[in-house]
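Progress against Task 2.4 (sequence-to-structure conversion) is shown through the following example record, which the project officer requested during the mid-term review.
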Amino acid sequence: MELRQLQYFLKVAQKEHVTKAAEELHVAQSAVSRQIHQLEQELGVDLFMQKGRNLQLTPVGQLFCKRVETLLKDLERSVAEVHEFLDPELGEIRIGFPHSLGTHLIPSIVAEFRRMYPNVRFRFKQGTYASLIKDVVSGEVDLAFISPFPENDGQVAGDIVMTEELFAILPQHHPLAGEEVLRLEQLAGEKFVLFSQGYSLRPIVWQACIEAGFKPQIAFEGGETDTIRGLVAAGMGVSLLPETALYQTNPMQPAQVRVVEPAVTRTVGIIHRSDGKLPLVARSFRTFLLTYFKDYNKTPEGC
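Structure tokens generated for the chain above:
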């Protein structure tokens, strides 16, 4: 069994067509067909079956495809590690993060790191709580910022780097907009603008409202902090957002008020695959992050 056979097989599985796979691989269609045939003969099974003009993986082909994907990803990372061992400052860091950290915190961190290591490349991927864990476990990303920190997930390991306060955000004309603090129960009759299902901030806000004695009435849902802030500023409702998501990105901004009784917080952590070895450049970045957040948490405003 040759590496080329596995690469051709995976490309055909992705494209579901020999001709399209050959075009992307820049080889002759006959070469792809020959390699797939030889692979099937060696394994003693049919990996594909015809479905109209396309090819479809057989059940055993699907099983084999999952293994091949993992194998080739591990091989790719192994080659990258060799190159990074020779010069770890030229590597690539693949990092995932929730949208709420992308406005200010992630750009600030990356800019600081690149001042020391200007040749390091970054590949970013935003996601929800569940998708970020999945991306780490599958090897799609090396590290991921996540909130809340997954305390009991054996597939990932990591560190809590900060605990962040959530503020109430209100339309500028709201009667409570000028207050220094408010009790969450004071928002019991308001319409809420919340993150959609799957976003980790939604259950945090929901549970805080329950603790305050009410279920939030949902007026609008969204997947981005800019959308939440904009809808609140436009008078569509109220919400709660973490401090790192409150940096101004456009002229239309809501008022923000500190919440007490109960204080609402979220943990933010950095995770990696528990049974995986990080590339050298990712390890350097992780070490940098732990130091960065020690200093970050010492500042009066956490910034």
